[in-house]
Amino acid sequence: MSFENLGLQAELLRAIGTQGYSRPTPIQVKAIPVILEGQDVLAGAQTGTGKTAAFTLPLLQRLSGHAHRGPHPRALVLTPTRELASQVATSVTTYGRHLPLRSTVVFGGVGINPQKDKLRRGVDILVATPGRLLDLIGQGLLSLSHIEILVLDEADRMLDMGFIHDIRRILRLLPDKRQNLLFSATYSSEIKKLADTLLNRPVLIEVARRNTAAQTVSQSVHMVEREDKQRLLAHLIHSCDWHQVLVFTRTKHGANRLSEQLSRDGITAAAIHGNKSQTARTRALQEFKSNKIRVLVATDIAARGLDIERLPHVINYELPNVAEDYVHRIGRTGRAGSNGAALSLVSAEEYKLFEGIQKLLRQRIPITTVEGFEHRPGRVQMEMPAKQTSRARHRHRGGQSRSRALS
Q: What is the pTM of this model?
């Protein structure tokens, strides 16, 4: 299958070719023709599958069929985070470079006046986070009365972050007649309820089993004492000569503290979370992508929307409280067909969370230990089921690691 077979117009094919892509991903093969037909879509696709292009390309083609009618947007893409909004906006600009369509992105954490100026000049496609969008509507800068296509990207994450009331307010401002596209990495009763109220006879598209990790991501768990985690992480980065390591913590304070500790260990690091300004977040991400820093420490706010090409390593310094967030975190690596590794540092206190992740994934994750960082005698046996207490030795030689899965 090629992009030409999907019914995309020459201007889009030209932009795709410039980016070096020759073959569409499975979600693109399934979604693009359906969206081009004008049908509603409920798509279940894990991160890293190419879903942004799966809706961006047909959206651009459908809007390019007729001229802009006025100052108000004709397509709205709602995303949960600033990073994801920026990523989608970049895709719209990249793929639409040869089309006479205008687009912009609006989100909080940055000055609102430049966003107002762009909206006053008129846009066809608006990418937005819910809060800033409602702010602009409240100031009379924006009307959604001409929306022809609505996209809810990472809808499950928007509900997790408490945006359901904002989404409902936004839906009430939209015209009844429109095309709706809902993309979600995981499904829940809340997502089903939202889909039932939003979508009109949708086409269901799935490219992977629900709540699964990408097959291109190798997963492993290191059992370690909680107080030894920082020392183990620094040891792994140094001994394996890792570069571009995305590390997840549960809290903003924990992200800051770990970033500072790694820096003291001679490992360049930066933290990214909701309390950081958008300028600081953008700068940290750019330095990480350009290899100016080796480690980016993030909270779950960054689990969606971070698009780092061929990111080799994701580390769960602390397991997430919600098992589904594990899928989103490790989905930052192994994207678009490339291979990646996801390693979790699990203390005995987190073992129930680990069990929940394995239950969600319906698979066993290989457990290893690193020599010199084992649990203290007796503690693991007290807090872990007996069948998981045997441990594989994990040695690092020449930057390579070897582990044995436990049955």
A: 0.64
